[in-house]
Structure formats: structure tokens, C-alpha cells
UniProtKB/TrEMBL annotation:
MF term (GO), any: D-ribulokinase activity
Residue stretches spanning the membrane: none
Gene3D superfamilies in alphabetical order: 1.20.58.2240, 3.30.420.40
Source organism per UniProt: Pteruthius melanotis
Official protein name in the record: FGGY carbohydrate kinase domain-containing protein
Family: Belongs to the FGGY kinase family.
Residues covered by the Carbohydrate kinase FGGY N-terminal domain: 11-266
GO cellular component terms attached to this protein's record: cytoplasm
GO terms for biological process, alphabetical: pentose metabolic process
Length: 550
């Protein structure tokens, strides 16, 4: 009404650092993404299983995309900033200068990426200790966690080890760049570094694995000031960071989250009333958030600690305050689909036809499957074609990084039909892997009724439907496709004080878009596919046992 004083909209900035790009979003208090920007970042692969990045390159991209999303916005309306990132390891000296994590001495390459598997022998030795902290990571530590990477650096780059001032998980590096405060997030140190919310760091673990020097300085190098996700860090944005990011000095900066956990935060707490879902009027412990991009993570929460063999956790308050988190995962999902499709001999034909039809290659493949299915349901096309998807090892629930991918049912055919079929079988294998993880969680005590999907792969309707059909559970897609960015913005909203709690912000800012129901008429077919799926890994282990007897 004329003359009526209108309340200015409050905005929050979420910044997400993924494996290949940095994204930022301007999000309002209802969880609507008002502006969005993305910029690629560089990855180096100097040798097999070594993946490196540059924290300088990453921060420059953070600044670029943040400036873009806040352009033209009244600075007084921007209330808070939240970061999430991959759980990559950042190495700097005592003056915060970049240190090389490689044999070439390239200091700008100072980040060991989450998916780097160089520390395979170190993690094997760590797991052989059977130390009590391993019970909080499913009984066996992953090569993708930080202790084996630290041990690799000490053993392989001893001169670097002596120069190190700080080891940061990438999400914590970003909050340090923004505030000048070296505090760590409870999320990162609990999930990737063996910190526990009740006992803190366990001196005996670090001494047992040969990293006793971290204990001597009271853990200053890896963090002795721990904050809960969403808690305000220091005095907010520094003057230098404000100039870099194009934001007002002093606005609230939140203790950060790992990217998958931010995605979970963005979807798992959404109001589901009126959607006829089994999780309606049930606690959020009946939900699993699945964040599916380059890799996939399966986040389930519980009121009491549940120890799931082969599944990380339980981690207290690592995602939702007051609840225990279990985290299953698949190390290569989007990356695997790309690998299979782009490596096929018919890929140039696919690329040309997709471009001619002005569709993405995956939209075109989905349409092509509809053409060749005839009277069958699409999923039934793979009755004789089966994939075991662990081309980059198994994270959950088998925790075996030595497992390899398998394809059974190949022919001499080389055309587009065959490419479409192997694409379908790969998506089904990923969904069967999700079923394998969910069954392990349920066997240990979780009661899961509904999946909440977000991330790049959730935009693919075939990927979503296969997960519904193969798990037998409804799949909820959020209204905002960029749920990870919404999760990061929720952190900023909490740090600003505009919401009383993470839970309140989750309920207000997480919104449901669409529900995909499973086709229960296909249950028998996918039960049989699952039987074959489990047989594949049995056979792989059997033939490896035979060859190892040489």
C-alpha cells in the first residue's frame, strides 16, 4: 500500500567449491536462489591417483563468482556468508604461503584433492592399528580422509613437512581467508580428521600412526579451536576479504561445511506436508539426503549413535546440531557416467546428434532409450548387461579401494544403441550401489523411508527414476536445484542471527519441488538385478584370490 513501510528483503550468500568449479548464489530468507554464478577451477593430475589444486586459484574463483551474484544489490541487505567445499587438504607455511604437495616443487599446487588416492599404503597401515577412533568411520578409514594424506606428506616430502604451518580442510581454509581466524568446523574435523565431539583429539591415535609431532604443538597445525557449523567466525568479514569478495566488511561469516553436508542441510529438513510421503509427520531420522555429483554421498541422521560397518560415522552434530550423522558414499558417480559415455567409440556420433537436436548428450541418450525400448519398460533393456560401478574403488559399504569396475554382457556391436545401453546399465549400477548402502544402514538400525536428492545428477530424470525403482523408495527433489548452495546460505543465515537455529533455517529455506514415486510393478526385475549385482563382487574377489595365489 502507498505510504506503508516495506521490510527490506534479507539476503545470504552461499559459496560452494566443487571438484571442478566454484559456484555462488544469492539466496533470500525463503530459500529462493535470486542470482547464481559459476567459474571453473584447475585440476592437475601429475601421475595416476594424484589430484591437485591451487588454493589461490580457488579463492580467486570464489571472489569472482561472489562479486557477480551481489552486483547491484544494496549491501545493507546482505546479512551473512557461508562456505562449503570438497574435503580436500590445503597446505600452507607459518606465514600462510602456499606449499607444494608434489615432487615437482610447484608451490601453487598446494591442495591434495579429496579423490586423490596416493596414500593407499598409509591408510592400509592406519587401518591395521584397529585404533578405537576407527569405529567412528565404519571400522576402516578411507584413503580420502586426511590422516593418511598427512602421513604420506611426512614420509614422501619430509622437507615440506618441516615447513608446514597449517593443514586446513578446504572449507576451513575458506572461512580463514574470509575472517583471518584459523578456527575449524566441527563438520570437517569430525568427519575427516578423527576428532570426536566428546573427547576431542585422541593423542594415542596420532602417536600410534607416526604423527606425534601434531600432538606436541597442541594440534595448532590441524586445529585446536573448533566451532559448530553455522556459528559466527571471529568478527566477520575482514576488510581485505570484503574488497576481494565485493561484500560489506564485518558481515557474519559462518563456520563451514563439507559440500555434501551442505547439500544435506539444504534438503533434508524441508516441510513435506501435503505430498503423501511416508516421512510426513515422522522425524527427519526417516530421511536420507543423497548428494550426487562427481561422487555421491548418502546422509542419514539419528537421535542416538548407530555404528554401520563400512559407513562413515556416527558423527555428532556434524550436519544437523544435536543429531548423529552416518555418511555412505560412492567415490565416482557423475565422473563414472562421463567416463563410460565419453570413452565409447560411438561418442562422436552421440555428440553430433545431440548438438544437432540442441539437447545435452544425456537428454539425447534418455530420448534414444525411449526409442529403442519398444514395448518394454526402459530399465528392462539391461536384462543381459550388468555393471559393477567401483571403477575408483568402493567407499561404502565394502570400504575396499582396490575393487575395480566390471561390465558383463558386452557384444561386438559399436553403435549408438550400445552406448545408450551401457549408459543405462551404469546408472542402474550406481542405484544398486545406493541400495547396497541403504540396506547396510537399515540393518544397523536406521529406519529409512524416503530419499531426498540434490546435486547435478538429480537433474537427470532417468537417474532419479532408477533410484526410486531400484531402492523402492520415493525420491524427493528440492524446489531449488542448487540445494548445496542453499545449504551454504543457510549457514550464513544462522551466523547472522536471523534464525534461532539451523533447524529453523532448514525448515524455512528448504523447499520441495517434485516427488518421484517408485514403480512397484518393476520390483521383481530389480530384485534380480540386485542379486546379479552382489554376485559380481563375489566373482571379482574369487578371481582375484585365484590370481593372488600365484
Amino acid at each position: 500500500m502507498p505510504g506503508e513501510k516495506q521490510t527490506a528483503v534479507k539476503y545470504y550468500v552461499g559459496v560452494d567449491v566443487g571438484s571442478a568449479s566454484v559456484r555462488a548464489a544469492l539466496v533470500d530468507g525463503f530459500g529462493t536462489v535470486v542470482a547464481h554464478a559459476e567459474q571453473p577451477i584447475q585440476v592437475w593430475e601429475p601421475q595416476p591417483d594424484h589430484y591437485e589444486q591451487s588454493s589461490a586459484d580457488i579463492w580467486a574463483a570464489c571472489c569472482s563468482v561472489t562479486k557477480e551474484v551481489v552486483r547491484g544489490v544494496d549491501p545493507s541487505q546482505i546479512r551473512g556468508l557461508g562456505f562449503d567445499a570438497t574435503c580436500s587438504l590445503v597446505v600452507v607455511d607459518k606465514e600462510f604461503q602456499l606449499l607444494a604437495v608434489n615432487f615437482e616443487g610447484q608451490n601453487h599446487r598446494n591442495v591434495i584433492m579429496w579423490m586423490d588416492h596416493r596414500a593407499a599404503s598409509q591408510v592400509e597401515r592406519i587401518n591395521a592399528t584397529q585404533h578405537r577412533v576407527l569405529s567412528y568411520v565404519g571400522g576402516a578409514m578411507s584413503v580420502e580422509m586426511q590422516p593418511p594424506k598427512l602421513l604420506w606428506i611426512k614420509e614422501n616430502l619430509p622437507e615440506l613437512w618441516e615447513k608446514v604451518g597449517y593443514f586446513f580442510d578446504l572449507p576451513d581454509f575458506l572461512s580463514w581467508k574470509a575472517t583471518g581466524v584459523t578456527a575449524r568446523s566441527l563438520c570437517t574435523v569430525v568427519c575427516k580428521w578423527t576428532y570426536t565431539s566428546d573427547r576431542g583429539w585422541d593423542d594415542s591415535f596420532w602417536k600410534m600412526i607416526g604423527l606425534e609431532d601434531l600432538v606436541k604443538d597442541k594440534y595448532e597445525k590441524i586445529g585446536n579451536h573448533i566451532l559448530s557449523p553455522g556459528e559466527a567466525v571471529g568478527k566477520g568479514l575482514t576488510a581485505e576479504a570484503a574488497r576481494d569478495l565485493g561484500l560489506p566488511q564485518g558481515i557474519a561469516v559462518a563456520a563451514s561445511l563439507i559440500d555434501a553436508h551442505a547439500g544435506g542441510l539444504g534438503v533434508i529438513g524441508a516441510d513435506v506436508k501435503g505430498h503423501n510421503l511416508p516421512c510426513e509427520n515422522q522425524p527427519i531420522t526417516s530421511r536420507v539426503a543423497m548428494i550426487c555429483g562427481t561422487s555421491s554421498c548418502h546422509m542419514g541422521v539419528s537421535e542416538t549413535p548407530i555404528f554401520v560397518p563400512g559407513v562413515w560415522g556416527p558423527y555428532f552434530s556434524a550436519m544437523v546440531p544435536g543429531l548423529w550423522l552416518n555418511e555412505g558414499g560412492q567415490s565416482a558417480t557423475g565422473k563414472l557416467i562421463d567416463h563410460v559415455v565419453r570413452g565409447h567409440v560411438a561418442f562422436p556420433e552421440l555428440e553430433a546428434k545431440a548438438a544437432a537436436s540442441a539437447h545435452s548428450i544425456y537428454t539425447y541418450l534418455n530420448s534414444h532409450l525411449d526409442l529403442i525400448k519398444k514395448s518394454l519398460p526402459v530399465g528392462f533393456l539391461t536384462v543381459d548387461l550388468h555393471v559393477w560401478p567401483d571403477f575408483h574403488g568402493n567407499r561404502s559399504p565394502l570400504t575396499d579401494l582396490t575393487l575395480k569396475g566390471m561390465v558383463v554382457g558386452l557384444t561386438l556391436s559399436r553403435g549408438l544403441d550400445e552406448l545408450a545401453l551401457i549408459y543405462l546399465a551404469t546408472i542402474q549400477a550406481i542405484a544398486l550401489g545406493t541400495r547396497h548402502i541403504l540396506e547396510a544402514m537399515q540393518a544397523a538400525g536406521h529406519d529409512i523411508t524416503t530419499l531426498f536428492l540434490c546435486g547435478g545428477l538429480s537433474k537427470n530424470p532417468l537417474f532419479v527414476q532408477m533410484h526410486a525403482d531400484i531402492t523402492g523408495k520415493p525420491v524427493v527433489l528440492s524446489k531449488e536445484v542448487e540445494s548445496v548452495l542453499v545449504g551454504a546460505a543457510i549457514l550464513g543465515a544462522c551466523a547472522s542471527g536471523d534464525f534461532a537455529s539451523i533447524q529453523e533455517a532448514m525448515a524455512k529455506m528448504g523447499k520441495i519441488g517434485r516427488v518421484v514415486q517408485p514403480n512397484h510393478e518393476h520390483k521383481r526385475f530389480y530384485d534380480k538385478k540386485y542379486e546379479v549385482f552382489l554376485k559380481l563382487v563375489e566373482h571379482q574377489r574369487e578371481y582375484r584370490s585365484i590370481m593372488n595365489s600365484l
